[in-house]
Design a protein that fits this description.
Elements lengths: L2 E8 L3 E9 L4 E10 L10 H17 L7 E6 L2 E3 L4 E5 L4 E4 L1 H6 L6 E5 H12 L8 E5 L7 E4 L2 E3 L28 H4 L1 H12 L5 H9 L3 H25 L3 E5 L7 H14 L8 E4 L6 H12 L5
Parallel strand pairs: 1-4, 4-8, 9-12, 12-13
Antiparallel strand pairs: 1-2, 2-3, 5-6, 6-7, 9-10, 10-11
Helix pairs in contact: 3-9, 5-6, 5-7, 6-7, 7-8
Length: about 300
């Protein structure tokens, strides 16, 4: 039976929303909207501002829907406690301990699913994307930051909202990280870090995608920065493989657009670090792109409609 959900993926700069038709095997966006994430003069996107814009998006999509809308799903970044429906902390959006699910439920008269953007996107990749049919999976979007969605024995694992912060594992390189610590995977291996470190070496501004192009062209500075990023990612993944033993690691985000330039050296480096007894995961590229968050939000919404 097909259910229709309105899904909203709240990002640091933009909100993506979609009316999604969901059944057991597929999720199809029928109509999409985008809005800038609202910020005040202080630069913060407070919970009240976000709730207002989410409510407007839901109203707009519901008004144009040909079928009755069954539920709404909303996912947000940062540290998110799904059980309590609380946005515990978001450095990018400027809130702390925000009762987002309660605020949204007071404004939206439909069943409401609420969760974390990366974990929801990971669930979508497991259900509909690169890890379809697998039960132990890590989905790792690599963008401005690095965080993992962990699906263990077919279920999302959140650890009270704190699980999956692989970007902040200290791997010993000593460089400062935006989190206030040093040595973090993210400080060397995120898209932002690759761009920043290339500029520090060369004096030339470049995006991570441009650095990847320079790697292919044989630029030694780009190759050095890229190799550092591969090594940092491999060391972070070693922790995940040792502790969680996933059968598959799905790499997503802007960094993963490098394709084999990322996966082949990363596979070789990780394999060289693993002991003979470790479970060796498949490394795959994400398939759902920037729709993953909305599709995951739609899943969170419609899963709650099922009866035993």
């Amino acid at each position: 039976m097909t259910a229709h959900a309105i899904a909203v993926d709240v990002g640091g700069t933009e909100m993506k929303a979609a009316l999604v038709a969901v059944d057991h095997d597929t999720a199809q966006p029928l109509r999409r909207l985008r809005r800038p994430t609202p910020r005040g003069s202080d630069g913060a996107a407070t919970a009240d501002r976000v709730v207002d814009t989410v409510t407007e998006l839901v109203s707009d999509l519901r008004g144009g829907a040909e079928n009755a809308v069954d539920a709404v799903g909303v996912v947000v970044p940062g540290v998110v406690d799904e059980a309590r429906g609380v946005g515990v902390f978001s450095a990018n959006l400027g809130w702390r301990d925000a009762p987002l699910r309660e605020q949204l439920a007071a404004r939206i008269d439909l069943p409401l699913g609420f969760g974390h953007d990366v974990r929801a996107g990971g669930l979508a990749e497991v259900r509909f994307g690169a890890a379809r049919g697998m039960r132990d999976v890590v989905v790792l979007p690599i963008g401005t930051g690095i965080a993992a969605a962990m699906v263990l024995d077919g279920q999302l694992y959140s650890g009270g909202g704190f699980a999956g912060e692989i970007g902040h594992v200290d791997i010993g390189h000593g460089e400062p990280c935006g989190c206030g610590s040093s040595g973090c995977v993210e400080a060397v291996a995120s898209s932002a870090a690759v761009a920043r470190r290339y500029q520090a070496r060369t004096g030339r501004e470049a995006t991570a995608a441009e650095v990847a192009t320079a790697v292919r062209a044989g630029d030694p500075d780009a190759q050095a920065v890229w190799q550092d990023a591969i090594d940092a990612l491999a060391r972070g993944l070693l922790v995940l493989v040792t502790v969680a033993a996933p059968e598959c690691i799905v790499l997503g985000g802007g960094f993963a657009r490098a394709g084999k330039l990322l996966t082949e050296p990363l596979r070789t480096r990780l394999d060289g670090m693993l002991a003979a007894y470790h479970r060796r995961p498949h490394l795959k590229l994400a398939e759902l792109g920037d729709t993953a968050g909305c599709l995951g939000a739609a899943l969170l919404a419609t899963e709650g409609l099922k009866t035993p």
